[in-house]
Write a structure and sequence with these properties.
alpha+beta, elongated, three-stranded antiparallel beta sheet, 45% strand
Amino acid sequence: MNYKVVEKKKIFEGVVFDIQVDKIIYDSGNESVREVVVHNGGAVVLPITDEGKLILVKQFRYPFQKFLIEAPAGKLEKDEDPYECATRELTEETGYTSAKITKLGEIYTTPGFCDEILHLYLATDLTAGDHNREEGEYGMEVFEYSISEVDEMIKNGEIVDAKTIAIIYHYKNILVNL
């Protein structure tokens, strides 16, 4: 690195994330500031039925004031294992449980200003059951799509959620390499 951190200051402590401002000095002597959204991260799970259908949810997203189609996902609690989070979110949002949850990888959602890491999981060998949604998820709907339908939905802008597009890419990469 060509800099050193001379000051770290938490300027906001929130429920979902904190904001930290770091003052840095480059080796050249120039000073700069880095603003970082500090986030616990999360887990994203892509449930696949025995028939090869992808299970996605439609949920209201407050910042955009509209419904988005997404893979089930949730925020990690402090020190929570991402696998446990993925398992919880699968059941909470879709009602399904899985006999086989496999890690696909992880993504850095917005590395220019946020340290959030999302852990990506594939859920197969599903068993249907009852969901256990949180209050903000009451209007959520569950849908099954073929991979070709999902490709078309991404192409035409019906699916715009980055984590969903990323996990579908990972899943398709597995299919290609079978």
